Amino acid sequence: AKISSPELNVAYRMPVSEYEELCEYSEELHENWGPPPGQLNTDGQNMVVYGEHFGNVFIGVQPSFGYEGDPMRLLFSKSASPHHGFAAFYTYMEKIYQADAVLHFGTHGSLEFMPGKQVGMADACYPDRLINSTPNIYYYAANNPSEATIAKRRSYAATVSYLTPPAENSGLYKGLKELSELVASYQSLKDSGRGPAIANSIVEKAKQCNMDRDVSLPEDDCKDISAEERDNVVGQVYKKLIEIESRLLPCGLHTIGKPPTAEEAVATLVNIAGLDRPEDGDIKSLPRIIAASVGRDIDEVYRASDRGDLESVALLQSITEASRAAVKACVMQSVSNEGRVASVTLLDVGAFINKLGGKGSPWAEALKESGFPSCSEEDLGPLFDYLQTCLGEVVRDNEVASVVKALDGGYILPGPGGDPIRNPEVLPTGKNIHALDPQSIPTSAAIDSAGTVVERLLERQRIENDGAYPETIGLVLWGTDNIKTYGESLAQVLWMVGVRPETDQLGRVSKLSLIPLEELGRPRVDVVVNCSGVFRDLFINQMALLDRAVKMAAEADEPIEQNFVRKHALEQAEELGVSLRDAATRVFSNSSGSYSANVGLAIENGGWEDENQLQSMYLSRKGFAFNSDKPGIMESQQKIFEKSLATVDLTFQNLDSSEISLTDVSHYLDSDPTKVVQGLRNDGKKPQSYVADTTTANAQVRTLSETMRLDSRTKLLNPKWYEGMLASGYEGAREISKRLKNTYGWSATSGEVDNWVYEDTNSTFMADEEMQRRLLETNPNSFREMVTTLLEANGRGYWETSEENLDRL
Questions:
Q1: What is the DSSP annotation of 135-197?
Q2: Residue 200 in contact with residue 234, Cβ under 8 Å?
């Protein structure tokens, strides 16, 4: 990076004549890109292949999608196509270098997303043309089975799964740490005369930490409010601090074949231990066992903690700390001198207790020392047997061996992809990833979980909207999320419209029944469902299920004040002159073979003029409707799409995994319709935006702005996170830059990023000269990108700051 990072090494210069001779379809690219060599991956005369040769190994840099040279193409193109440089790269590998195999390294490239059929590639489909006959082995993140399935279907990949980056608890830092110390002082001294003064200090420090939008802080002096009110204020602040401190965050990047450290293993296992496992012999979660030992039900503790009850918040924190201590005691049995878990020996608890003369297991002793001496060994035994098994799977290194086996033409053992915390069967990695039977979702467990989230979402909106229910919710369905959760977000849509899914004799979810209004206890809420391109590819039957559910609700003979689906469908049928069933079209996606709204790419490349341009892209690329009356056709229905979006009162997305959050990838903002809806509504009102967080046993529904603040505090602005990234070198610095760019993207699509997030980013990375130097030496390109992003945020009105800061930038 220090020497020459902007200049990639040229491995081969391909004359245009050679390219045209060897690439049989090169003329078909002229329509989109003109004649070769074009503008990308060229020196002006030749096609340029970037990379380096090491003996009989060629390490190449896959060309980009091609939008960098012409971002405006995004607006008008319904579908991308490979540019000449992209075609030349794969032509070189097959025809000139004559590779025996290609290993695509890491999730993910763009080969499998090139235009063509969704499945069953023909010789006219670009993924087929590009990879042609070269065996394709693909290192793929274990937590992304949906896009791994696309890679298998569209580019014939044999996938080899790898662990996601090691995760740790976010922790507290700077002012947040000081605030935590003040809360601890208040807890021990609140009944003395110093209680009100400490509470005042907590309120003041919370304001300095920009918590005044997360917690309702009193304007009055704390000595003028009751002790109960003081406790409630401190409880709310404490709850928010615990939320920040306990959030799991990936630290650095995963190194292939490197087992996790003990600390990393503890963080993963604590989260595995945090979920009940009825399907694995009814194993109780560790928090449930600990809470029961003091006569409390963990679900009731969660509810009281959410209300800000100080005693329950403190108990929940004690349970969390005790869980970590117990799991650490378990992990430490298997730690090497280097602090890594090398191998796991299952502990015979009975023999261990006898050997120590009646002492309990290491984890029971840890719980006793943490203040919970009465935990049931009967419940702890099965749980810790399970955790030790999971630990053994986490550290088994099959990642390198599996690639060697694949290169040797061997068989790679298949295994499910998904979140290792929800489904430890994903472990060990090094497997050929598969997804699930799409007709088996949503499962009954997913339907129950979805019901809880929908209930919390509607209740929160009602409280904040003078008791009125939202009439329409705009939401996004993702392929990976529905595989990981077995169809939770799919089931949420059905709950909203008040339809119950049912299984047939073969266990397939194929039947629906309308939940009576009396049983539902609320109006049927209309929906506008935006399916990702990957969801469309994997779950076409479930799209039909959703379409049938909405139409069933629209055709129900019910009062329109109790059935918003029918209300809007009747209005739109009259306005557009179509049938009621056509007017009730609510399931949308990209056209067949096309992916994403490309809003994220436009923001990344900076080629957009104003927000209207981004909104036009969203509407033109996402306005293709699925109709169960005409299956197999994705038809452009932009008018119905716009009319439906114009009725949206709130937008909604799900976060189901601690590994990927709102600013980790651009997909979430790419599909965010918040400002699109504002532009379409007659009253110009911006809809409320909510995010469901089901990453822990205690599911939360937060506003988008609350989630953005939580994300910024735990990642971008957190020393634990950015130091972990900087330790990973060039790519880690790029990850920091990417988080900032995605944060800025949310300002463009939703306007829900607070000014202080940019201000603190500037203080952390730009005002600190030592940090400037480190970024510049580690990755000058990413440093330049961060400077540009901050200037652009100011120029577009998303960040107000001092002239001094702007001059420095």
A1: -EEEEEETT-HHHHHHHHHHH-EEEEEEPPPPEEE----HHHHHHHHHHHHHHHHTTSTTHHH
A2: no
2 — pLDDT class (breaks 50, 70, 90) = very low
Q: Angle at which helices 262-273 and 310-331 pack, to 10 degrees?
A: 130
- Tell me how far apart the alpha carbons of residues 268 and 256 are, in angstroms, rounded to a whole number: 18
Pairing mode of beta strands 624-626, 634-636? antiparallel
Q: Which pLDDT band holds residue 73 (cuts at 50, 70, 90)? A: low
Amino acid at 761: T
Write out the H or E segment, with its range, that includes residue 509: strand 509-514
Contact 141, 164 (CB under 8 A): yes
For residue 554, the surrounding DSSP H or E stretch is helix 540-554
Helix, coil or strand: residue 528? strand
**Percent of the chain scored above 70 by pLDDT?**
95
Helices (H), 247-358: 262-273, 286-293, 298-306, 310-331, 349-355
First-to-last alpha carbon distance for the chain, in angstroms, is: 22
Token duo for residue 805: 């800061």
Give how far the C-alpha of residue 174 lies from the chain's centroid of Cα atoms, to the nearest Å. Answer: 27
Q: Please report, rounded to a whole number, the percentage of residues in the chain having pLDDT higher than 90.
A: 64
Helix (H, G, I), strand (E, B) or coil at 261: strand
Q: What is the pTM of this model?
A: 0.83
* Cα–Cα distance, 150 to 140 (Å, whole number): 11
pLDDT the model gives residue 178: 94
pLDDT digits (tens, 9 = 90+) for 152-166: 999 999 999 998 887
Q: Do residues 107 and 144 make contact, with C-beta atoms less than 8 angstroms apart?
A: yes
